[in-house]
Design goal:
The chain is mostly helical. α3 packs across α6 and α5 packs across α6.
C-alpha cells in the first residue's frame, strides 16, 4: 500500500511526490441525531387550543350587501338575547309573586313548613308594639334634629320603647310556643328560635312582610 505523505514544496511540480487528488476522500456528513430538540415554545393554553379548533375569525365584509347581511344576523342575535332576558325577568317576577303569596315551594328555607305558616298567622292576627318601633323611632329622631333641646327626652323615650319591646317579645315568644305545641305536638321546631322568628316578623311593617299576611288583625287563627 502506498503511503501518503506531504510533498516537498521544492518538488511541488513533481507528480510522483504529490498527493493524488483522486485518492482524497470527501468529508462525510454526520448522521442526523436521533434525539429531537425541544420545541422551543410554551405549551398552548386550553383557550388557545379551543380557539384554533374553532377556526379563524371571519374576515371583514368586502361589499355593502355582505355588511347588511351581517348586521341583520347581529340584530337577530340581539333580539334573541333581549327575549331571553325578558323571559328570565318574567320568571323571576312570577317566583317572587308566588313567594309573597305563601306557596311553600317558592319560600325561603326559614319560612317553609306548616309550623312557620301558623306562626305567621298568629303574628299577623294581632297588632304589636314592636311593629310601631321603627316609625316612632324615625319621628323621635326627626324631632331631635328639629329641636336639639329634646335630645334627652328622645333618648329616654327610645330607651322606654326598647324596654317594652323586650318585654313584649318574651311574652309573645312564650304564647306562640304554647300554641304551636298544642297545634303540632310532634314538631321539633320551637323554643327560642321560633320565638325569635315571630318577634322579627312582628317588628316589620305590615306591608313589608314577606310572605304577605293572609289574615287581618282580629281574625281568629
Amino acid at each position: 500500500m502506498k503511503l501518503l505523505r506531504r510533498g516537498n514544496p521544492d518538488n511541488s511540480d513533481n507528480g510522483d511526490n504529490g498527493v493524488d487528488e483522486s485518492t482524497t476522500t470527501e468529508p462525510t456528513t454526520p448522521a442526523p441525531s436521533a434525539v429531537t430538540e425541544g420545541k422551543g415554545r410554551p405549551t398552548p393554553s386550553r383557550r388557545e387550543a379551543e380557539g384554533r379548533r374553532r377556526g379563524p375569525v371571519a374576515p371583514a365584509p368586502m361589499t355593502s350587501k355582505e355588511a347588511r347581511e351581517r348586521r341583520k344576523q347581529n340584530r337577530g342575535t340581539k333580539e334573541e338575547r333581549k327575549v331571553a332576558s325578558a323571559e328570565r325577568r318574567a320568571e323571576s317576577a312570577d317566583r317572587r309573586a308566588r313567594m309573597l303569596a305563601g306557596e311553600d315551594k317558592y319560600l325561603l328555607p326559614r319560612d317553609k313548613g306548616p309550623v312557620r305558616a301558623y306562626v305567621r298567622d298568629l303574628v299577623d292576627s294581632r297588632r304589636h308594639l314592636v311593629g310601631m318601633f321603627m316609625p316612632l323611632a324615625v319621628l323621635l329622631i326627626l324631632a331631635m334634629f328639629l329641636n336639639p333641646g329634646l335630645q334627652a327626652i328622645v333618648t329616654l323615650a327610645m330607651f322606654v320603647m326598647m324596654l317594652f319591646m323586650v318585654i313584649e317579645g318574651v311574652i309573645m315568644g312564650r304564647r306562640i310556643n304554647n300554641k304551636v305545641r298544642e297545634r303540632f305536638p310532634d314538631t321539633l321546631d320551637g323554643g327560642f328560635k321560633l320565638g325569635w322568628y315571630a318577634f322579627v316578623r312582628a317588628s316589620q311593617i305590615r306591608k313589608m312582610r314577606a310572605p304577605q299576611p293572609r289574615v287581618t288583625p282580629g281574625d281568629a287563627v
